[in-house]
Amino acid sequence: MSIDVEVAPEQAGFDAKRLARLDTHFARYVDDGRLAGWHIVVARDGRVAHSSVYGQRDAEAGLPVEPGTQWRIYSMTKPVTSVAAMMLWEEGHFELTDPISRWLPEFGDVRVYQKGSAGAPFTVPAVEPIRVWHLLTHTSGLTYGFLQTSVVDALYRKAGYDIQSKPGADLAQACRDWAALPLLFQPGAGWGYGVSTDVLGRLVELWSGQTLQDFVRERILEPLGMTDTCWSVEPGTDRLAALYVPGPDGKAARFDAVGQAAFEPPAMASGGGGLISTAADYHRFMQLLLHGGTFQRQRLLSHRTVGFMTRNHLPGGVDLDALQTGGFAETTFEGVGFGLGFAVVRDPVPARVWSSPGTYYWGGAASTAFWIDPAERLTVALFTQLLPSSTHPLRPQLRQLVYSALIE
Questions:
Q1: E strand or H helix that includes residue 41
Q2: Residue span of the structural domain in which 168 resides
Q3: Residue 96, domain CATH
Q4: Which residues form the Beta-lactamase-related domain (predicted)?
Q5: Is the peptide bond before 388 cis (omega within 30 degrees of 0)?
Q6: N or C: at which end does the chain have fewer Cβ atoms within 10 angstroms?
């Protein structure tokens, strides 16, 4: 499925010449070799005012980016899993304050890292159980092995969980492994990016009685018509963009060591980073959120639930900056809170990039990104395939160019 421009920029409140700066600016990243290619979509009131592609989805094969190109969206899977969980919350399967050990008893006696090395860590008992809302807000103390910023993530790597999961481990096994490792901090006492949403995906399985793949497909993807969103693609498929990393010369270098994983069904369906999607499909998901849980007469969530999810749920209403533990994240910390699955802008000034207060968003490890601005009725998404997402300042540049084109 492709995505077409539905309304002239001027009719959507944009200056067409200013909006065209998007293509001029981001084309430079391809022309000098820093990116292989990209797809940018800007919509207002649900109507696409700008959809442009540039460069190659597979530079080595000479295949161009097309409107139907598939992309590894990595952590842009997290909002999808969060929506899945909150659909079950609306059905009464759990309360946000419930300890997750009610369904995952392996988390009933977790310990917290205090000091020491990866070879001899000293831990203390958790004084607060991990609750469901801790998973949704990344305040659980769970982390990622690939961060390489703490003793705890070194323990994750030692247990087999790095940028890819331990070979052969399914979601149930992964949860047992993670529960046996110490937390980075006491639940609710900090904010740390990690496997929280993967554990949430396991809970979706237990609450629903379905696999995460089946629940997401039947309850979200199919109702929204997201026909090109999946957990893996068939070998030989050439619609999927190749994966790249910065080479020694700063130019994008192919990274099949990780990229090839997309061609095999995963042993562990990662609710935190496993989906592959297209611009058209993810646009439909964003419209569901912008329109309060409804898309084309399909209601997945109450508009009150969407509003609740996109408020700042951090303890004390503070910014991420007050609770963050460092390491990799898909956001800046200043002026930003966190809701139930999304970063939420509280004040754009500290980050020095405009967006309306109340804007919510997230991104993926391969430099993909999206945001939804309810005040401006705006949705924006960027798709590309460069690991890690911190390589280039694509996201703040995208924001300043889009908002400077909005003249209504």
A1: strand 37-44
A2: 84-208
A3: 3.40.710.10
A4: 22-401
A5: yes
A6: C
